[in-house]
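Box 4.2: Ligand-aware structure prediction
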Amino acid sequence: MEEIEYMRLAIQLAKQGCGWVNPNPMVGAVIVKDGEMIGQGYHKKYGELHAERNALANCQTPPTGAILYVTLEPCCHHGRTPPCTEAIIESGISRVVIGSHDPNPLVDGKGIAILRSHGIEVTENVAKDECDKINESFFHYIQDRTPYVVMKYAMTMDGKIATRTGESQWITGEKARRRVHEDRHRYSAIMVGVGTVLADDPMLTCRLENSRNPLRIICDTGLRTPLQARTVSTTDTASTLIATAITDTNRHQPYLDAGCEIMVLPQKDNHIDLNCLMQRLGEKQIDSLLLEGGGTLNWSSLQSGIVNKVQAYVAPKLFGGSGKTPVAGLGVDHPEGAFLLSKPIITQVGKDILLESEVIWCLQES
Ligand SMILES: NC(=O)c1ccc[n+]([C@@H]2O[C@H](COP(=O)([O-])OP(=O)(O)OC[C@H]3O[C@@H](n4cnc5c(N)ncnc54)[C@H](OP(=O)(O)O)[C@@H]3O)[C@@H](O)[C@H]2O)c1
């Protein structure tokens, strides 16, 4: 097998940790000796052993003189587990092949330097782009300490996210909706505005087998979420956080009694302050967030500069009329004021199309 093939195997292993390791990165490792793979492993769950230690524990023969292929630079600090660099040095591995650099300030090249200082040969940047891709939310979170925000919506080919009567279930087909559920498993939280709760009463859970539910966040400045809303009455199934500007604890109590968490935030432009919300979520180790709001919250989120990526599912349908659009608000005055996105990646998902772009400029001049 070629070097890149071992790394791709390590990437496949890393992906098995998807949804379970947040706010840690997904990492996979493969150990090869005399052209034979003798061990493999991945980071399975937050707080548990890292990929390198799992791969070493899995070795069928002693790894002395072997090559370790690992998707991310090994850690060199004491966190919830001891440094992986120590385990690698003790194992007698003679060469380490790395995919991504770890921008965590506690690592950031120090892992590589320690290995080299112990005479271990290190090769960097093998399948780097592929390795980077699996950890885009980790790279953002570890540097910014706020969640990586993916703004997702489903729309018709005439750009509507609901009919003129406000109905939006369903616009896309089953395969696209399944993919959204995979992302609900992948990301730590899901966020909507109270407008979506009032219109659709969504569950916002992940309905796949062997999956986890994201933290459900409702942006609700004036506490208008009905106590009967499914997000409020099902906190035994998934956690719900209501972000509000209401400080009156008597008004919080019924939601607290229902098992919801209340986060009180300052206001900005008559709504809760989204930048403040992102800071507070970061402190709660929410590393990634799927924004499934309506057009009002989507616009504010873009304006606040909190959106990192846009996922537009486009269904081959037309609603016409005055149906809602994915990004509402005031809108920009001139084309040159547009929010700019990177060249989209286009994926066919069943009969629908998924367009994915990074937001490359998102702070509007006030
Ligand atoms: N097809 C899709 O992908 C999709 C997805 C979601 C929704 N929808 C459709 O969208 C429609 C609902 O649209 P919507 O615009 O009313 O829903 P929304 O954007 O989810 O909720 C808007 C509400 O969020 C509250 N909010 C709290 N903080 C905010 C902030 N910082 N900025 C902006 N708003 C904030 C505002 O009320 P307060 O400030 O008073 O709290 C606002 O009225 C429904 O018809 C639904 O079916 C479609």
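In the box above, the bound molecule is NAP. The first helix runs from residue 3 to 15.
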